[in-house]
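Sequence only, no structure available. Ideas?
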Amino acid sequence: MHTAQGGGSFIVGYGTISPTAHENGGVTEYYQFPNLGMTFNAISSQYTRFKLGNTTAIGLDPTAEYLYQISPDSCAVDADSSLIYVDAATAEALGDSTLAGWWDQGMTESKNDVEYTAGTSFIGSLSADHDVTFQCAGEALNTAINVNIAGKVYPHMANPVPRDVKFSEIAVVGFDPTAEYFYKIDPASCAVDGSSSIIYIDAETAEALGDASVVGWWDQGMTEQLADSEWKSGDCYIGSMGGTAEDVVVSFPAAY
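Reply:
I predicted one. Tokens follow.
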């Protein structure tokens, strides 16, 4: 995270999310279906939300690659959510420099001014032969970011903080660890990663179990406590909430 002091007491900055490139046996490969959420808040916004136009996609081919969201009700693809990014070179090739930025996939509506609530997540549909990164800019908040997932059966949620945070820094209110869990999507196949499921034990549940030390994040089988593991900036989990996730709030820490 790179920051500078703003005109008041806030901090502005930028950071890069690199969700595609990874090493496999000493060879650099690129995930086709990365899950990502933007970081940094819209400057001077009274809400915790990010402005899409404050994120630059580097390497995304708007003729073949796009981002999309999943429905929080069904976990199916939301067909109306697809986004593409037109970089300056592509806009110049199209003969109109004003086209640079984010668009719906049909390029009928600019999305640069659209604001999403903090924690909103996307899945990429990308090529496997090159890297795509995302540079996010805006305000780094010095207060906690509460992501409210109430009413969502399958909330797709990113770490909205422009730094990696330990799970011990993240608290959850209203979560039922006996019936609900979070999991990840395999960025290579877009299938569920069966080994990624995690749960949160709150103080009340820990008391019922007779052991206050179990408060916090665990793998779903409760064989490994995840307090020191990190939730990477911009990385995502999907919730399986079993019902309507009434009053479930995930609280991420301040950026600094």
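Helices lie at 88-93, 203-209.
Hope that gets you unstuck.
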